[in-house]
């Protein structure tokens, strides 16, 4: 199985695009839950890590965790 590595402030691509037709999300919280923010419209979504792992496709940009 492929290891899914993502971290705080990474910009990721999900399997399905958001309603605003953008498929770029920034990770703003990492823990038992993952919060992601749409880079198109600014909507914020909180989901369980298990659900995020199912919907996660790839990391587009590495973020700076110090921010």
From TrEMBL:
Q: Pfam families in the record, alphabetically?
A: DUF951 (PF06107)
Supply the name of the protein: DUF951 domain-containing protein
Question: Which InterPro entries does the record cross-reference, listed alphabetically?
Answer: DUF951
In the record, what lineage is assigned to the organism producing the protein?
Bacteria, Bacillati, Bacillota, Bacilli, Bacillales
């Amino acid at each position: 199985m492929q290891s899914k590595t993502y971290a705080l402030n990474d910009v990721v691509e999900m399997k399905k695009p958001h309603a605003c037709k953008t498929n770029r999300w920034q990770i703003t919280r990492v823990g038992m839950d993952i919060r992601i923010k749409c880079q198109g419209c600014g909507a914020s979504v909180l989901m369980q890590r298990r659900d995020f792992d199912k919907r996660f496709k790839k990391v587009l940009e590495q973020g700076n965790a110090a921010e």
